[in-house]
Hints:
The protein is mainly beta.
Amino acid sequence: MKILDYVIIFFLCFGLKLSTAQSITISPDNSEMIKLDRNGESYQKFFHNNLYKAYLGIVGAENFYLNTTLDNNLGKLQFGTKNISRLVIHPTGKIGVGISDNVPISNLQIAGGTEDLANSGGDFSIGSSSNHLKIGVAVSGLNSGFARLYAAGTTPNLIFGADNKDIMSVSYSGVGIGTLTPSEFFEVEGGDVKFSNNNLLLKLKNTSITGKSELRFLNSSDAAKAYVLYDQSINKLNIGHYEASQSTGMYVDNSNSFGFGINTPTAKMHLKHTSYNATPTLTLEENTSNQGALIEFKNNNTNKWSILGNPNASDVSALFKIGYSSASAGEILTLSGDGKMTLKEGTTNKIEFFANNTFSGSRMTMRDVNGNRSIEMFSTDGSSNKPGRLTFRNPSDDSIIMDLDADYSNSGKSRIRVDELEILGGADFAEFFKINNTGAVEPGTVVSLDEKEHGSLVVSTKANDSKAIGIVSGANGVSAGIMLHQKGNSVVDGSHPVAIAGRVYVKADASKKAIRLGDLLTTSALDGHVMKATSKSRKNGAVIGKALSELTAGEGFVLILLGNR
Length: 565
């Protein structure tokens, strides 16, 4: 640029107006090309030397100046005050603020100068005194600490802050909020984290198809305590505590079935517990002292069943209830704190179970449709350590119509009282006898009195034996209907049931005479057998019964009616 160019710029920019006290000096040499002064004081001065410099400013103290230079043939434009370079525009296009005559190291370089950082706006500020974004921000005083952005020390950390506090750090190890030294890829410390969005709030992704995406919770010592984990290999969400086995946490599978302590739930909620009653598997607690925890079972959003537990110790009448949500059904099962269980139909008790009652034992009561007693069963009869009792009552007047008493009147003996007794399991009336015999005694064998041992029997061995008593019960599948047996008395005790009345199969001998229906039967000479009786048999009192079936020849079994003589 020529000197004439500066002159034109000068007059255009400043519009200098000369007067009597003003003068213009033009020097032809290389020092001062144009000099303007007033009363000896230089206002604008252009000078030119071998370095091609030009100035515009107050010459004396150079309180301000505009300077262009061609140092080493590289042009540079400087702005300064108080003889100090404040702004440099380098020929490369880089701009420096506060770097004196040095070359800017970036497109825009702002150097920290001698400013009072404790009471100023900082090296670089944007905004008003109350709302600032500042880089190299002041630490105190006017407009200090509203925002900060800086690199921390010698480490490659980028720090973001506000109100004199460092809030977030970005470093080679991760992003930290509330900490300048994150140990994880993303770490938040010292406060709550809030996500607010109408849809997606947080997204965790593991790019490996068999990987796990985990949200981990730490304590103040950075020890892992709890976790939320999605396992892609099994397609399940796992929530648990690190101090327990991961297999005992909660699992949610792809059908939204929940497993507690099991990762393969087979129901919408599947609980697996291995404490063996050391701790509860499931606890439901109601916060109101006089109420109970309630479980409801619904069908199409309609209540069907309910289970109510009432932990109130003062209310022993209804500690646990199972009900059906129908006005006619009401409570079905009630368990009370005094050991009573009641089955109901509507509001009427139908079956009652007592763990303890006035009979010093448990009791079960069954009632008719009106709630009147019908059947009662007692574990003891009258006092402890006594046998039980079963009674059937007439619901209309509560009278006992059938009584099975294992210890009636504390006599140590059992008794049955009934209007009629029908036996369905047998056809004869038998008593237990001792039978003296060298071999086994088979059912259907005729037995007689033992002449050597009173009260005992032997197998019959002679014909027309008037000492014949009966037949061993049980032949051909016909059992005794009633058995009499008194244990502990050797005279009347025994191990063989002998039919003395009723119908029973007997061994028969038809080798001499056929046995026809209605024939009277007596003992045969063949051991333990009967044969057709003759007149002599009747005379001797040896007839023991009448034939109800036939045997035409040889040996076999005949059905006999005992006692018909």
